[in-house]
Amino acid sequence: MTEAILLVGGKGTRLRPLTVNTPKPMIPAAGVPFLTHQLARARAAGVEHVVMATSYLAEVFEPYFGDGSALGLSLEYVTEEEPLGTGGAIRNVASRLHSGPDDPVLIFNGDILTGLDIRALVATHASSGADVSLHLTRVADPRAFGLVPTDPTGRVTAFLEKPQTPEEIVTDQINAGAYVFRRSVIDTIPTGRPVSVERETFPGLLAEGAHLQGMVDSTYWLDLGTPQAFVRGSADLVLGRAPSPAVPGRCGDRLVLPSARVAPDAKLTGGTVVGEDAVVGAGARISGSTILAGAVVEPGAVITDSLVGAGARIGARTLLTGAVIGDGAEVGADNELRDGVRIWCDTTLPAGAVRFSSDQ
Q1: Is 162 a catalytic site residue?
Q2: Residues 264-291, buried b or exposed e (16+ Cβ, 10 A)?
Q3: 3-state SS of 111-179?
Q4: Which of 11, 24, 162, 267 is catalytic?
Q5: pLDDT (tens digit per residue) in 151-197
Q6: Overall pTM > 0.85
Q7: Phi, psi (degrees; rounded to nearest 5) at 105
């Protein structure tokens, strides 16, 4: 049996106001909490036991997923009293693992949407005899990421944090946020203090001569750390560009959950999701966007690449482009919000108050 740790403790600061009431992995993507997609893909790859490392709004996870039996999994939950970083979180849940010292343990970051071949990563780990194996992906501009160069056999040779000059960019391979650890390696991580696997554990292992293996898998990969990326990831799941067995319906231009009400002449395209009990009025046009549970989009509104929070209301003829509307907010009629504008939870914006705004 392969078991896994899911790191779901982050505060999701870059995603506010989406994460004011909801931890990042529980924000709905393609109609279900994003974490559902990760769990379903892990189960499809043969994982049976998952330990969730929780912290921020930790009380939300277990009431939703329970013991995991509905997904064919055995789930356990461990809550950090104080944030411990990625490495600290992994070490903090080690006592819940069932694996022997040489067995593989999968570890996933809770904010990465990927088409990674999980079985291939585990197979690479086994065949290479590595202490830790890392999923690597290639990106056009690696300056915002940690670079992971490898030798011709795939063995990791260095970890280079966020290079800025052309001379520092020695590879386009980056750490993609999924790992396989030899179980005994987890026990070497220090306890009781914050530890970063990226900045401390991995470089330290490399310096000690441990075998770290990289597997480049350049299928779909997206870091959902910003609202724009989250909206795009949800749309890509609906469109079938990102694979998941957990999408509650057929892939296509739109996903409307059964209890939602959409006017016959409303137009939904580009992977748009309309959540439970949401209402979309006559003549509304929504493209590449997510309308969360209980939200109301009034007649004639035009929404593009945006997210409308749970219970929010978008007034008639209002235009949203690349906007994020927090839970319970009310945007009056005839407003125009563009280019990364965020409206906080429970805010009321009067009719016609904003004709154009941009995120500076």
Answers
A1: yes
A2: eebbbebbbbbbebbbbbebbbbbbbbb
A3: CEEECCCHHHHHHHHHHHCCCEEEEEEECCCHHHCEECCECCCCEECCCEECCCCHHHCCCCEEEEEEE
A4: 162
A5: 999 999 988 877 777 777 888 899 899 999 999 999 999 998 999 99
A6: yes
A7: -125, 120
